[in-house]
Each structure stands twice: as structure tokens, then as C-alpha cells.
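Q: What would this chain look like folded?
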Amino acid sequence: MESGPSRQQRHGVRGGIVLAAVCAALWGLTACGSPPRANDEDEPRSTPSAEVRLPPLHAGFDYQIGGAYRPPAGVRIVSRDRTAAPAPGLYNICYVNAFQAQPDAEKSWPADLLLRDSDGEVVIDEDWDEALLDIGTAAKRKRIAARVNEWIDGCADKGFDAVEPDNYDSYTRSDDLLTAADATAFITLLSRHAHTRGLAIGQKNTVELVGLRKKAGLDFAVAEECGEFDECGEYAEAFDDRVVVIEYTDSGLRKAVAEFGGRLSIVRRDVDVSTPGSDGYIRRS
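A: My prediction, written as C-alpha cells:
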């Protein structure tokens, strides 16, 4: 399985970061409208082609990155791992772990593309035992994007409608070796390629960068626990309500539905995103 469990618990930047403060710290600006380019690859922003189809607004949603199964009645949007097949007749989002290496795939990456600290040790997301990829230079971003874009090609070839690159926020776990500008530059490469393949591309979490969505070419949002952490409004405003929400607690579901149940696509899943019949399987809407 490409994805492993859901990743909502590791976000150390939840709730307390104001976008203007982030921009000021990173670029010396008071707003995020026009940060400087991180490197020479970051030229025109990615613009969706006419062929890109966006997810429907306020539609039944199911998050199946832990394993594909028959979608419940009323579901119109499904997110599945890139190794799975899309659900016939529905809007399908393809999950790709784009910014970190799967625990069983770390050695398949060239050693110089793994982020290393001053001692030469690989920087690890300890919550999920995943090595961070080194997107800190334009040359390395292009090499990493070439591989991830092959996975995006696979999503397109299978018939998915969109791609969901996970770990956009990995720079927050990089011990300050990577920046938000690096992350935005890298995801712009992915969005540019996804659009050439007719795929929409979603911003996964990382609420502090929603103000850069147009520069980065991002079409919709996939937000974990935005109800629980009072972030749904920021995503809704930035993406014109084109947001799919995954909550992992009943309290988060209640908050998300109470405030945005008539606008966003919301589902409650278990943390392991398991399949029906598994211990702990939960799905509510």
C-alpha cells in the first residue's frame, strides 16, 4: 500500500500559524501575493487546461487510501492510493506520497535525493518512519519530480481525475533544512505536469500556504481534521468551497458538519483508513 495510515497527527503547525507571519518570516513580506521565486525553474505558474475536471462541490466523499472497497451509496468522490484502480463512474482522486519516501522504498531513491542533516544522517519523519526527500535545490526538485511525475502518469493512465500529493508540509519536519518556498516550488512542478495529463491537483493540508494556491497551480484541497482544528474556513475561502474533508474524531465531524456541512464534502474515517470488515473500521458522514 502506498499510503500507510493517515497523517493528521504529525502536523506540528496546526491552527496557530498566520499566513502573513509565515510569509514575513520566509520572504520578508507582509502578504503572500508575490513571494520571490525559489529558483530558476519556478517560472510561469501552472494553469489548468480546459480538459481538467474539478471535483464536484458538496458531494458525498469517501477516503480509501488504506484500501479500496465498493463506495457506499451517495458517494460521488473517492480518494484511493495510486496502486489501486479508480471507482467506476465516480470522481477519483489518486493519492501519491510525493515529498517523503515510503519506509520500504527509501533505498530505491538515489542517496543524494534524501534530505541529510549536518552529520550526513537522513532526516526522518519519526511519526511515520519516512525519509524526507531533498527538495532544497532546483536541480534536485527536477530529479525528484521526474520520478513522482511517472506516478502521476500512472494515475492518469488508470483513469483517475485528480492527484493528491501528500506531505506538502514536510518542510515543517525538516529541522529548518527546507522552506515553504522549496515546497511550493516543488509542488508547482507536479501541478504543471498533472495539468498536462488532464488531472486536477489537490493541496493536502498545509493550511499556512493556502494563500499560494494559485501560484502553485493547486485546484482543490484535501483537508484532514480541519473541523477539529478550526481550519475549514481558511480552506473554503481559498478554494471556493472545493474542499474534501477527512475527520478522525466524532467531535471533529460534528464541528465540520455544523459549520460547513452545506458547503464542503466531509467524511469521518478511522485513523488507519481501514476497509470494511477490519477491526476499527469507521465511516460516517
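The radius of gyration is 18 Å.
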